[in-house]
Amino acid sequence: MVFDSFVAAHWTMLGTVFAIAVLLGAVVNKSNFCTMGAVSDIVNMQDWQRMRMWILIIAVAILGVGLLEPLGLINADESMPPYRASDFAWAGYLLGGLLFGIGMTLGSGCGNKTVVRIGTGNIKSLFVAAVLGTVAFFMTNPLPLIDASLRDLFFGWVNATAISHSHGQDLGSLIAGEAGPWVRPLLALLIGGALLYAVLRVAGFRQDRNAVSGALIIGACIVAVWTVTSNVYVADETGQRDTLQTYATDWDFHHPDTDAGRPESTRWLAPQGVNFVGPLVQSTQYTASGFNPGLITVGVMVIGGVIVGSFLWALISRSFRFEWFADRQDFNRHLTGGVLMGIGGPLAMGCTFGQGITGMSTLALSAPLALGGLILGSALTMKIQYYKLLYEDEATFSKALVTGLVDLRLLPASLRQLDAL
């Protein structure tokens, strides 16, 4: 899409993303897709149905990016967050995913599910979203007085342990170096095809039309946002086309006498998929600024669209209802969950959607590492909660932790502290 005006181009992109996000919010609500629920179903009931949904979404996203990128319709190399960055900050991805997984279990859902529940009237989720967005904001924009100490505490050691790859950290670049762009489509077909086969070979899943159609639409929404944010240009008087990011960076050259329509930052004009950590930060900034139009980003549109879509489906299905904290313990648990997600999200450079789907679609090595930490943190937290509920005072945190690790086969059975029930 080529426009003569930056403002027209920018708002067309934002409006299109908003429409996609409305569909995304409605479908996630209707299909009951929940990444934390997928982990919980396996841990507690050995039910893989929602996990198969997640895998199918990932497969669609990988195939979509892998096939459209060689055609020039998606530009994941210049994405924000930079999934294919040369520095592989493995410690941050792993620890961040672990903290996020713990947080989403305590907070009753990941970033996506939190936003979807806001649309259904859940005030607890609105609180968690505000906490997550605020903490994540100060993780990436620390106060001047604690700038150095905060960065050293969370990012100093992460950056120090990062491994640099000259051609990027995606599988294509790691395997083929400069020829990575030629290898990525083949890898996408291989990996995406294998994931498709793994889930669609299960008759019980294939026959669940709500789950299959929901997963296909959610995956398509991820690819659609990638495509839209990669294909909006502004043409100057000479006919030269600039991306929105390039045009806004040279704003003073194009519009030396006015700032009307100028975004506060060019960072989030880059190509991007669907994430919920960064967008919650951006939405928090936008709200705190008194709804400054210059702070409206793709992320803000994603959050707003998902809430609207979820709300519309809640009205259609008559499932809208206000929900508040049951007690002080419930409040404290959600507060802790929001804080941990706000810390873990920036460290992992994403969430269940940001790394678990969008990151995976780029074949970035960071995605499976963050996703592994996230699933481990969530599953282990569920195990600890389970044993403390069953055994009450007898189940100390350490006993529940060790027993949970045994259940997950990360420690030998001889170390079991509590009997499984």
UniProtKB/TrEMBL annotation:
Membrane topology, record value: Multi-pass membrane protein
The UniProt record lists the keyword Membrane: yes
Pfam families assigned to the protein according to its UniProt record, in alphabetical order: Sulf_transp
InterPro entries named among the record's database cross-references: Sulf_transp_TsuA/YedE (IPR007272)
Transmembrane intervals: 6-28, 54-76, 88-106, 126-146, 182-200, 212-234, 295-316, 337-357, 363-382
Alphabetical UniProt keywords: Cell inner membrane, Cell membrane, Membrane, Transmembrane, Transmembrane helix, Transport
GO cellular component terms attached to this protein's record: plasma membrane
Cell compartment(s), UniProt: Cell inner membrane
Family statement: Belongs to the TsuA/YedE (TC 9.B.102) family.
Descriptive protein name: Uncharacterized protein
Organism: Halorhodospira halophila (strain DSM 244 / SL1)
Biological classification of the source: Bacteria, Pseudomonadati, Pseudomonadota, Gammaproteobacteria, Chromatiales
